[in-house]
Amino acid sequence: MSRFPTRIEDILAAPTRRGLPHPVKHPPADLGAYLRGVDNFCRVMAIRPGDHVVMLTDPLLDPRVIQAVQGLARGRGATFASYMGESTRYVTVPEEAKAMLSRATFVVSTWFASVLDPYCIGLRRNQGQRWVKITFFRDLDLLHTPQAQFPLDLLGEIIRATGRLFPEQGDFTLRLSDPRGTDLRIPYTDAMLQHLRKHNRWRGHNVADEPGCYVHYLPTHGPNLFEYSMVGLKPEDKVGINGTVWANWAVGFDKPFESPVGVEFQDDLVHAVHGEGFAAEVLRDYLIGGTLEELGCGHNPKAPRFDIYPAGPNSPGSLHVGINAPKPSDYLRRVMPNWEEPHIHMDLVLYDATVTAGNKPLVEDGYLLSLRDPKVRALAETYGDPVDLLEAWPV
Questions:
Q1: Which domain of life is it from (predicted)?
Q2: Domain total for the chain?
Q3: pTM for the complete prediction?
């Protein structure tokens, strides 16, 4: 297995490189490939007769996405309503939207609040609402892309294979390292591990057909190797996260870091930002005192490797370290005024990292080891050439 190129010049030469928002054109796929994308869309949006579907949207969402969900709902005998907020960046649901949302059985949302707001978590937990977050489906033409057409069941098996790389039980340390000197350590308890295993995303279940489920569509982002809610913790719980991340890049910057930038955690908080230059100054200005929201890992082999906007890369083994800062970043507000994430959130990106859970490697030099799993390779055979499906990563 050869390492994927991660030099700055390789990233800059990639036609899909994107760290800041700019329009992306998706060439039409042939009819067969396009229909595979449509089939995935209809499967993930597992709307049933009698459902009441609510969409939480924003002004910049492609209106054809709303029409597609509405059309599918009507075709399946479900009712439909939508609420357009001012942007995607809500961290809590506005009071005026709660009455509409509380009636839903199925929710499709662009809002950041979907995963974090206790109100939304309560609707899934107590009312069994089924949720689909569409951070990565803001343009209907994405149905023409290989990442949208990648077999759902194969993606689920890749995720389950990653889950099998974790220890079966017991306490351990999740460690992130790389050639630049990254050494971040996240203590895991057995209770955290067992909670992680129960999550529908870690079970590789990417279809919104289970009571209380929360899935991403396009189903590329994660599941996260660490996330407070995913491991059964609350944001205020103490974990003991320590170490420094020397990232290749970060969302909100047009190019990878030319000068090394290191973000240091002590006892769960960002303690310091090391390095010189503009990027280090920006991150130092607003990340100190921040908390680790997630350590995310891409899983879709057809997601563009060097497209990190708006929330980090989705290619297998590429990592995003999501940090919530104490205050918004004026820099990000200037360069991404219509960003889909709140301006207190920062995703650091690593392409050549190694992740170990105890003494078991999950990612090696930026390569997701579950792609070698025998069950994954066998299932890939049923869809085509496993080398093309699993190893030919778009750049």
A1: Bacteria
A2: 2
A3: 0.95
